[in-house]
Amino acid sequence: MIRTTALLVIDAQVGIVEGPGIGPVYEHAQFVQTMKSLIEKARSQSVPVFYVQDVDVAEHGAEAYAIHPAIAPLPGEPVIQKKATDSFYGTDLHEQLQSHGINHLVIMGCKTEYCVDSACRKATTLGYDVTLVKDAHSTTDNEVLQAEQIIAHHNTVLHGLGNLEPFVIVRGSDEDVLVPSHDSYR
Q: Isochorismatase-like domain spans which residues (predicted)?
């Protein structure tokens, strides 16, 4: 099967990445730089970039609501507004991906244990192979774990997670994550 890739950027909004309130996320400056590099690489290779924006982060139009300016979408790049943790629930994300013939998603964004985790899991049940970029998702500390522990935990738990045929692979941004490697494990 031919794999067609899209890059999915989840909730990389100013209010989460930089704060105040929800953020800043763990190692936010490096996190933004890693996302920026991957977005530029995707664009240079004509890999479509899809953005998901959480409507509950801040009031629409507020600076905190905006996608981080260092990685802002270009005109014509889809921005999907969501109300739920699951990027697919109540949105047309799946339909848009299908209209582009996408069957492999490279996922990065915020927050690891909520929206990133949900997107990875849901994508496999919808038939997508997923590459989670291990150093391009981030979160904040909680009452039990430090952000670094949450990220490491999810990189371990999600690697190899599958639902029937599609599954998640966790790879670093130093690898060619835009080229799916799932078939080498099948």
A: 5-143
